[in-house]
Each structure stands twice: as C-alpha cells, then as structure tokens.
C-alpha cells in the first residue's frame, strides 16, 4: 500500500512537472519569437533612418540595444557610432570616444557571428579608424588584421561592392606609402604590408563589376590609379564619370 501510494504520488508529481515544463518551454519559445520579432523591427527602423541620412536619430535608436546579442544589430550600431563620429558637429573628444565605441560594437558583432560578412567589414573599418589615435607602429600592425577581415568579408559575400572597394583602398594606400614609412615598417616587421597599383586597380574594377556606379569614390580611385600607372586615357574616362556622378552626399560633392 505504501509503495502503491508512493508510485501514485510520483506519477501525479511527474505529470505536474511535465505540464510545468511544457508551459515553461512554450513561454520560452514565445519569448524568443517575440525577441526576434523586436530585433527585426529595430533593424527595419534602423535601415530606414540610415537610408534617410538621419545619423543622430539612428545612433539614439541603436545605442539602446548596445547589450544585444544580435550581430545584425551590433554591426549597425558600430556603423552608426562611426558615422556620428564623422559629423562636423561632433567635437574631437566625442569623435575619439565614438571611434573606440564603434570598434567595441563591431568586435562584439564578430564574436556573436563569425560568419557575418558585415561584421568583418565594419570591424576592419573601425580598426583602421582607431589607428589614427595609436601611432604609426599600431597602424602598420593593424594593417595585417584589416586586410584579413576585408578578405573574409569578400569571401562571405562576393557581391558586396563596398568590401571589395575597401580592399582596393588598402592596396592603394600601401602602394602609395611614402619611403620613410616603408623604412619604419621594415624596421618594425620582418615582412611589412605591401601592395601595388595593379592590385588596387583589380579590386576597384571588381567592385564596379559587382555593383556598377555604386559609389563616386570608386570611380575617383579608378581614375587616380590609372594616373599612377600613367594611363591618361583610362584615367580621363573614370575621372569624367566621377565628375558627372549625381551627388547625394557631402562625400560625393568632395569627390
């Protein structure tokens, strides 16, 4: 009788525990769906603000979610922080703070999703920005990391013209590096980062093939690179395209 009562009680408890577990599982599942829906909603708002050029509003929206575990949100926050730092109304001290903030968000995005091409791209961009505050040794050391992450971004998304363009800028920068910086690089590193104008040109053309006429600066650098290679005919072609590009942003006007 005691055994029968104990077994009966155990079955009742098991049934109760099972029901509690199922309820908990369903609530947890609902919370996850709700959370993912909320993230999608924030991303949609963020993309609208980014497309509208509402830099400050975008930053204010995304910084509320700085503790998010979602890589898509975090890389967008890194981009928004950097964009805010670039505004002429941002003070030098605020700019420095935002640049380092942006790097932290990009790093976190990469930690959350190593397969996210945009996280790699913005991590590389943010490391490059931080280099402006850390001296030539750090900048040269970071160059290896930057190249690696741009290449990874391109591997993950070969259609992303911006990543390809930025890889071209990397090559152009090191092809153009002044002699004294090359000397410092050679003293600091056994194999310092190097590149050629031909390599830069290849990336700029690849970017144009991925998304024709996507960016005024890519047109400008195609022209500049052809000039470096003493091909004035091709330089004129691309510089004319850059000149005729319909300006949408301040950068387009500068180009």
Global geometry: globular
Helix/strand order, N-terminal first: HHHHHHHHHHHH
Name of the CATH architecture: Alpha Horseshoe
- Helical content, roughly? over 70%
CATH class type: Mainly Alpha
CATH topology: Serine Threonine Protein Phosphatase 5, Tetratricopeptide repeat
Please identify which CATH superfamily we are dealing with: Tetratricopeptide repeat domain
Query: How large is the share of residues in beta strands?
Result: under 5%
Q: Nearest-angstrom radius of gyration?
A: 25 Å
- By DSSP, the count of extended strands is 0
Please mark out the parts with pLDDT under 50 across 5 or more consecutive residues, or reply none: 30-34
Query: How many independent structural domains?
Result: 1
SS field, number of helical segments: 12
Characterization of the model:
This is Regulator of microtubule dynamics protein 1. Interacts with microtubules. By secondary structure, the protein is mostly helical. It has a single domain, classed as Alpha Horseshoe (Serine Threonine Protein Phosphatase 5, Tetratricopeptide repeat). It is 80% helix and 0% strand. The chain has 12 helices and no strands. The protein starts with a helix and ends with a helix.
